[in-house]
Amino acid sequence: MATLYYDSDADPALIGARKVAVIGYGSQGHAHAQNLADSGVDVRVGLREGSSSAAKAAEAGLKVTGIGEATAEADVVMILLPDVEQPDVWAAGIAPNLSEGDAVLFAHGFNIRFGYIEPPAGVDVAMVAPKGPGHLVRRTYVEGGGVPALVAVAQDATGKAHGLALSYAHAIGATRAGVLDTTFAEETETDLFGEQAVLCGGLSALITAGFDTLVGAGYAPESAYFECLHEVKLIVDLMYEQGLAGMRFSISDTAEYGDLTRGPRIVDGHVRQEMQRILEEIRSGSFAEEWMAEHRAGRPRFEQLRQEAAAHPVEKVGAELRAMMPFVSAGKARPQDVSGG
Ligand code: NAD
Ligand code: MG
């Protein structure tokens, strides 16, 4: 079994003795900065000129400066910008303001794993990656809990990087829930694979194909929506609470027999082979290269695919049905909070 770290395994004094800069105030940034401040850590938020987040951060009682200034002033810099934006901001505002012995932290391994950011030899490079969206990192902290997190060390210049990462994890509430060791490579590769093959890509494609099959055969789009999308949550909740066997215990024998005999025909050898190829594209860096190039070209293909997906009939019927079920989305995450990675 892997080692899990809890509150008593972390030394809060380590992060308490440092000056921390949180760069970015989005989903993760606002949560880390506010949790650190509430834990008594000396934290400032580094934002670009004219950032619309500056007012929000100031309203939360946080000190706000430019990115270069925050980096220069601090000796621990947590980079919470979108992954594809990080290399340019790193080169312009962060790298020139680092000092020997500083620590650079990430919440996802992408830029280190694929070499888009190459920190100088004299700084610690570590990861504290909460396994949940920022609004949950904040909400659970306020409620006295936390979101589990992964920690990793890519470069240990001071010999103290792991302890510092654990101490940071403690200050954002993660050691209340459990913190696990990983590596930048493992976190990055499994995170990308999960979101592409299963969580986001695989599941969306499965739902869409099921919906299209029923509607194409003449069934009502409303029935197809309830069957192929709405009910996914009910089944996933059972899996989340009790595993696959627990889910199968709760469904009818007819459903279970259909599950066991038909599931492997849907996710067949071809699908498993394609999963291998997707994993290979991640590990070779070719997915990262493709995505970085798409981003730098202004995201033409991404925007087109987004629009096509948004125009799919499952979205139209879904919007109408959900409008009649306000309880479905009441108090739940806003779409911008639910991104992966
Ligand atoms: P986000 O998109 O919510 O926020 C990014 C912030 O950076 C925003 O304040 C935005 O205005 C600012 N920003 C964008 N481009 C910028 C630029 N060029 N210069 C300066 N500022 C810029 O990002 P996020 O989802 O919080 O992700 C931050 C990091 O956390 C990423 O490494 C991500 O992989 C990781 N992460 C995210 C989640 C999640 O659920 N959102 C979970 C775990 C890890
Ligand atoms: Mg500094």
Strand order of the largest sheet: 1-9-8-7-6-5-2-3-4
Question: Tally of extended strands?
Answer: 9
The helicity comes to 55-70%
DSSP summary: helix tally:
16
Q: Overview of this structure, please?
A:
The longest helix has 30 residues, at 221-250. The chain contains 16 helices and nine strands. Helix 5 links the parallel strand 5 and strand 6. It is of the alpha/beta class and 341 residues long. Helices cover 55% and strands 12% of the residues. It has helices at 12-16, 27-38, 53-59, 67-73, 86-94, 110-113, 134-142, 161-171, 184-199, 201-216, 221-250, 253-266, 269-283, 286-296, 300-310, 313-323; strands at residues 4-5, 19-23, 42-47, 63-66, 76-79, 103-106, 124-130, 149-155, 179-181. The two termini are 24 Å apart. Bound molecules: nicotinamide-adenine-dinucleotide and magnesium ion.
List keywords for this structure.
single chain, 341 residues, alpha/beta, nine-stranded mixed beta sheet, 16 helices, 12% strand, binds nicotinamide-adenine-dinucleotide, binds magnesium ion
SSE topology sketch:
Elements: E1 4-5, H1 12-16, E2 19-23, H2 27-38, E3 42-47, H3 53-59, E4 63-66, H4 67-73, E5 76-79, H5 86-94, E6 103-106, H6 110-113, E7 124-130, H7 134-142, E8 149-155, H8 161-171, E9 179-181, H9 184-199, H10 201-216, H11 221-250, H12 253-266, H13 269-283, H14 286-296, H15 300-310, H16 313-323
Parallel strand pairs: 2-3, 2-5, 3-4, 5-6, 6-7, 8-9
Antiparallel strand pairs: 1-9, 7-8
Helix pairs in contact: 2-7, 4-5, 9-10, 9-13, 10-11
The structure holds nicotinamide-adenine-dinucleotide (NAD) and magnesium ion.
Magnesium ion (MG) binds at residues 71-72, 74-75, 99, 102.
